[in-house]
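Entry
Fold in token form

___
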Amino acid sequence: MRRVQFIELHEQPWFPSSIRDEITDALQFGFNRFKVYAPIAPLLQFALDSTRSRSIVDLCSGGGGPWLDLYRKLRSRKLEEDTPVLQIWLTDKYPNLRAFENVRTISENYIVSYPEPVDAMKVPRELKGLRTMFTSFHHFSAEEARVILQNAVDAKESIGIFEVTRHAPSTIGLVFAWVLMLFVCTPWIRPFRWSRLLWTYLFPIIPLVLLFDGVVSCLRTYRPQELREIVEKLTAAGYQWESGEHSRATAEAPITYLIGYPRARC
């Protein structure tokens, strides 16, 4: 099955921002409930240690991504080692500000949001630290993906790409299961909104968009070999790149990753 470059509805400029926020809230609920990115905490720590960074700039953060769980894991290790804790910046081209504020409050200001929209291909220079992207790199064409990576290289920043979606029937099947489960879980998604019930049960726009975009996400996701082909086109002397699929157990869905960071200078 070859990768396809097709649109996801909720990322389009014409898509209603209020419903987009409802969709990113639902995705955020899934991240928090199932902790799908918990296995890559050691990879994140490796990337941070490789550059001695104490800050993370998360791109395309949606409703906050998997950071509440990952931040606790990384912070716990930092406290054990008696080193400064991390500062994590959430950014997005279409920021869900209410969701970002909720994450900031829960994390006690260790996870904060950048006040302006951020294009992953043109990250403001004042945002310094390890750049991360979760379940979002596939939104971009191969040329746009190259620009994102080159922008990090030009700024001399490390970058980590992580995708739980895959070109696999089993993963597409999980998308269907997750959307069906929304009909049970929606009343527990926070912050509670009556509009979310309206767009889930009476007019099921949220489930239908999540189903469509979820399947498209799987079809658009880059394989490790495709990521390596993009890296080969970069002007990135002095950078180290690692890519593959990571899973701690056979029962876990593998997470595709790409990590790049400047090599240590002697």
In short: The chain has one domain: 9-262. The domain at 9-262 is CATH 3.40.50.150 (Rossmann fold).
